[in-house]
Specification:
single chain, about 150 residues, mainly alpha, 8 helices, flat, signal, Phosphate starvation-inducible protein PsiF, P_starv_induced_PsiF
Length: about 150
């Protein structure tokens, strides 16, 4: 009986503290609320359209770290720049195909090879894939997967 009373008291204490903890969590401002607070402080003294525009710009701005990341060129952008330089002088379908192959090639950290050779090997791999796909007609599931793996290796 004593154990039951102790258990009931412990449960009651637990439930009594639960709302207090939840209230503390609810009081923490969200990131958007923090941003609003900072922007409001910076907009002190502004009125009308000037304040409206400032608040809009301030609230839609990215944090400084995100801005730095956004300004730094991505790997894809770097790859695009390199491929564009290599494609100088090419036009029309030749350029389109070269750019497609170049951009889908290995990342910049991979050993560098001649871009046109990369485009050729990519094309031969694509041709191999087409042939294997045609041969795999009718195969499904694991059988197809195994066949395709062996076909593409050979």
């Amino acid at each position: 009986m004593n154990k039951l009373v102790i258990l009931a008291a412990a449960l009651a204490a637990q439930f009594a503290l639960l709302p207090a903890h939840a209230a503390d969590e609810a009081k923490k401002p969200t990131a958007q609320q923090e941003k609003m607070k900072v922007c409001n402080e910076k907009a002190t003294g502004m009125k009308g359209d000037e304040r409206k525009k400032f608040m809009s710009d301030c609230l839609s701005a990215k944090p400084a770290a995100a801005e730095a990341d956004a300004k730094a060129p991505s790997a894809q952008q770097d790859k695009m720049k390199v491929c564009n330089e290599k494609a100088t002088g090419m036009k029309g379908d030749e350029r389109k195909k070269f750019m497609s192959d170049c951009l889908s090639a290995k990342p910049a950290g991979a050993p560098a090879a001649d871009a046109k050779a990369d485009a050729k090997s990519s094309t031969s791999q694509q041709d191999k894939m087409k042939v294997c796909n045609e041969k795999a007609t009718g195969k499904t599931g694991d059988d197809r997967k195994k066949f395709m793996s062996e076909c593409l290796k050979g």
